[in-house]
Amino acid sequence: MSLDISLLLDLVGVFFFAVSGSLLAARKGFDLIGSVLLGSMAGLGGGVVRDVILNQGPPAAFSNPIYLVPALVASALVYFTLKNVRRSGRLLLMFDAGGLALFCVTGTLKALDAGMNPGAGILLGVTTAVGGGILRDITANEVPSVFDPKDLYAIPAFIGAALASGLWQLGWLNLFTGGAAAAVVFLLRILSLRYG
Amino acid sequence: MSLDISLLLDLVGVFFFAVSGSLLAARKGFDLIGSVLLGSMAGLGGGVVRDVILNQGPPAAFSNPIYLVPALVASALVYFTLKNVRRSGRLLLMFDAGGLALFCVTGTLKALDAGMNPGAGILLGVTTAVGGGILRDITANEVPSVFDPKDLYAIPAFIGAALASGLWQLGWLNLFTGGAAAAVVFLLRILSLRYG
Amino acid sequence: MSLDISLLLDLVGVFFFAVSGSLLAARKGFDLIGSVLLGSMAGLGGGVVRDVILNQGPPAAFSNPIYLVPALVASALVYFTLKNVRRSGRLLLMFDAGGLALFCVTGTLKALDAGMNPGAGILLGVTTAVGGGILRDITANEVPSVFDPKDLYAIPAFIGAALASGLWQLGWLNLFTGGAAAAVVFLLRILSLRYG
Fold first, then answer.
1. Which residue of A41, A74, A112, C135 pairs with C45 in a disulfide if CB–CB is 3.0 to 4.6 A?
2. Rounded mean pLDDT, B135-156
3. Are A44 and A69 in contact (CB under 8 A)?
4. What does each C-alpha distance from C136 to A130, B135, C19, C185, C186 come to in angstroms?
């Protein structure tokens, strides 16, 4: 059951991170293919790292074709509609925050479902959440935004991972509580961007 | 049988990508060790990513010592004969195109031989083909050439992976048809560089 | 038995590399969280790459919580005491040399304990030793120090991996001989920095 929740939240997270990657591709002057590649790397990279570390068969992005849908839709959407939008840097941060919020929850849940202990689950949740953005920024030859000292990035992810782990252990995890944990992370991240 | 074809084409691909890595090392002013390291990373990196994602034991580059031969020969060759060659940038692109052409075919075949579905096989073939070059360029602190909007890079790899998948499913795969698929990719890439 | 030795030397290596990562974070102006992240990436990255390549379950950094202790202690220590130290570049190189010396030994031993042949064990030992530093430098958007042509980096790691492999095959491996192999690597690296 928690895996189904994870899948849904995970796919939305892929979409958000892929939008952030494609927006960065647009800012860097990459073409449509570059948009698809950087969008896919941002959207799918964190989950691939997570699944490679879990070491339970090929990553979901390769074994489950549905993962490609949000990544490709996001890249096409950005390339054809959003790439000339004003304040794309701000938009990038918003979508990145959405991906961060969802992936710290789903990464933790997938680790716990795979039998990891709660501490390792939280660690893998944070790794999943920050991994896609780090891959995106490294590939585009920028210092990863997770290291920007002006605002909080890893702390909200850590809180979200801990919330998800707590909900899972208490048996309170469902789409509503999982989504609420992600919403808390998103809010913390946005507040930190505004007042950081 | 298709694995033997893959091994031969794979080793030639390792050689080509390792030459590209060592040429980049020469341009960056790295020494012989840097040439071996960046050559090995370019030549073996895509295959290591492929095998880590397939999750069927240690990567071939570590379990099969023969993979080190083309990587080391390429690095030594470049360091002692080619590093002062004129137009090394152009040479780098040619060898990179050769590696791309071979790895999109062998990556797809190895994925299909491991039981992946055709779609995932094509995806892993493209990942293998672009992976080594991305690792090479990221490590040398450059924007990966796959993102250069002036020419086609991922599209030829995608076509080659789709050709390899089709040949494999039809049972038509042999050294000749596999090599022909790689030749098509190489030609497309070179044409795109010339007229892009 | 050799695994216990490995664990001890490995944890000290994590501490050394984590110090180097946190010192780089300080030089880059990252905050405490950035210090913890870059320190953890430097300290744990090489071992995660090693364990992902060995493909025998989740990496030790995720399955064994004790690995987090030296990484977190190192980051806190640097952030609160060392970050404004003079000549932090020199200090970074010293701690990096310590991590290199220990990881080439422990990476090789873990590979041999996992059943790899000696050649592959040495290759994986070198990969473990240089991997954390490469990840650290790539993430901070710098050319990895392993490519600095002025001094030796990979050669001492190769010698240490070969020594560890020899000791293991002869059955002479214990904490003293393993530590002595690491000391040889450290000395070679430091001599190369001074007279390179």
1. C135
2. 92
3. no
4. 15, 14, 11, 20, 19
Question: In 3D, which of B166, B164, B191 has the Cα closest to residue B180?
Answer: B164
The 10 Å Cβ neighbour count of residue B99 is 27
pLDDT tens by residue, A114-163 = 999 999 999 999 999 999 999 999 999 999 989 988 889 999 999 999 99
Q: Which residue has the tokens 């507040």?
A: A191
Residue C49 CA to chain centroid, in angstroms? 12
Amino acid at A72: L
Average pLDDT value for residue range B62-67: 93
Q: State both tokens at C129.
A: 């030793």
Looking at residue A3, what is its pLDDT? 57
The gap from C-alpha B65 to its chain's centroid, in whole angstroms, comes to 18
Q: For residue B143, which residues of chain A lie inside 8 Å, CB to CB? A: 28, 140-141
Question: How far is it, in rounded angstroms, from Cα C158 to Cα C162?
Answer: 6
Residue B3, pLDDT score: 57
Q: What is the pLDDT of residues C23-65, one digit of tens each?
A: 999 999 899 999 999 999 999 999 999 999 999 999 999 999 9
Tell me how far apart the 2 most distant CA atoms of chain A are, in Å: 48
Which residues, at least 6 apart from B4, have a Cβ–Cβ distance to it below 8 Å? none
C116–B63 C-beta distance less than 8 A:
yes
Q: How confident is the model at residue B1 (pLDDT cuts 50, 70, 90)?
A: very low
Q: Domain locations in chain A?
A: 2-195
All residues at 6 or more sequence positions from A79 whose CB lies less than 8 Å from its CB, including other chains: A22, A26, A32, A35
- How many CB atoms are located within 10 Å of the residue A22 CB? 33
Query: Could you give the CA distance from residue C104 to residue C13 in angstroms, rounded to a whole number?
Result: 10
pLDDT in tens, B110-138: 999 999 999 999 999 999 999 999 999 99
Tokens of A86: 């004003």
Report the alpha-carbon distance of residue A27 to residue B28 in Å, rounded: 27
Q: CB of A101 within 8 A of CB of A160?
A: yes
- How many residues would you count in chain A? 196
CA distance A117 to chain C (A): 8
Least confident segment among B29-33, B35-39, B80-84 = B80-84
Give the residue among A112, A93, A85, A106 at the shortest CA–CA distance from A26: A85
Confidence of residue C3 (pLDDT cuts 50, 70, 90): low
Which residues from B are below 8 Å from A when comparing CB atoms? Answer: 52-55, 116-117, 119-120, 123-124, 130, 134, 138, 141-144, 146-147, 149, 152-155
Q: Which residue in the set C53, C149, C154 is minimally distant from B59, CB to CB?
A: C53
For residue A134, what are its two tokens?
């780090």
